[in-house]
Design a protein that fits this description.
five-stranded mixed sheet, 15 strands, alpha/beta, 2 domains, 6 helices, Nucleotidyltransferase, domain 5
Length: about 300
């Protein structure tokens, strides 16, 4: 009997922003994945996204903009996922003072010490209004794309680091994805999330921008130090455990950003590797070194969607 190779599956990651979408499509086969499309489309083009994509069905993961996500830390015993979801929902509804039916939320255990005699573990919860999720998903009209997961930027970055950083599961790292409106910061230890937060970039007259690049670097370095101080006090993070800052986001594509932030923050920095030639299909257009960091979250979302296709 002849063995017939199955066609490659496909997955899509879509990062939703205020002014448009960034998307990365990947082909999946027994060797792993290869990037087939890298897109930046306007908010008014989401309804016709099919014309930008390969003519194959694909699973998708979509992110909620971080500025519309509330990150909460709750404590719970070790529970099955279904039981933990119920408990987390009740805690979040109480904290935010919003009926549970009006919320969308997800969660993950934090790699932080247990509390209350080791009977309760910290849980990082991500919450948004259900109306926000419905608005985002309703804008994406496609006959070929099936949205399998609604996700957040921080967990998309975790997917990316597991895939692209060889020593990610050994020691502590700071993930920094700095875009035009703000920065996502996630601290991890031994491959698991420890703490996550969103830092809006200083606004003046409603426009998110800083007076100079040096101000941006100083502000980001200060926020990194503040985050590490919090993690040391709350989660007993040994600062010597922190290996380096993993960089992505449009702001980090600027010339010498890596070196300048490293000096300002006092930690080694590394640009997160994204689109190596051996990870691209033949017809994929590779972004420039300056453009590539903008698509880190979208690639992490595509990897999440790939898990749903497995």
């Amino acid at each position: 009997m002849l063995w017939k190779r199955q066609p490659a599956r496909a997955a899509l990651g879509i990062e939703c922003g205020d002014h448009g979408y960034k998307a990365v499509a990947i082909d999946l086969d027994e060797r792993g994945y290869r990037v087939s499309r890298i897109l930046s489309i306007g908010a008014d083009e989401a309804a016709t996204i099919d014309r930008f994509l390969p003519s194959t069905r694909m699973n998708a993961a979509v992110s909620v903009p971080s500025m519309e996500v509330d990150v909460r830390l709750i404590h719970a015993p070790e529970l099955a996922e279904r039981d933990l979801r119920g408990m987390a929902g009740y805690e979040l509804s109480t904290q935010i003072q919003t009926p549970l039916e009006e919320l969308c939320y997800d969660f993950t255990y934090s790699n932080a010490p247990s509390t209350n005699g080791r009977t309760r573990r910290p849980v990082i919860a991500f919450v948004c209004r259900k109306s926000t999720a419905e608005r985002l998903l309703g804008a994406i009209q496609s006959k070929r794309v099936e949205v399998k997961a609604l996700d957040v930027a921080w967990m998309a970055l975790m997917n990316l680091y597991h895939d692209r950083i060889a020593d990610f599961e050994r020691g502590a790292f700071i993930g920094l994805d700095a875009g035009g409106a703000g920065a996502n910061i996630i601290v991890s230890r031994n491959g698991e999330p420890l703490f996550a937060r969103y830092v809006p970039i200083q606004a003046e007259n409603g426009i998110m921008e800083l007076q100079s690049r040096s101000n941006l670097l100083d502000e980001l370095a200060a926020e990194i130090r503040r985050t590490l101080q919090y993690c040391r006090n709350q989660f007993q993070l040994n600062l010597e455990e922190v290996k380096r800052i993993l960089l992505s986001g449009g702001r980090t594509g600027e010339t010498a950003f890596e070196e300048r932030l490293s000096r300002a923050a006092g930690l080694n920095c590394q640009r997160t590797p994204l689109f190596d030639a051996d990870r691209m299909t033949q017809d994929a257009v590779k972004p420039t070194a300056e453009e590539a960091p903008r698509y880190a979250i979208a690639l992490g979302l595509a990897l999440r969607a790939a898990k749903e296709a497995a």
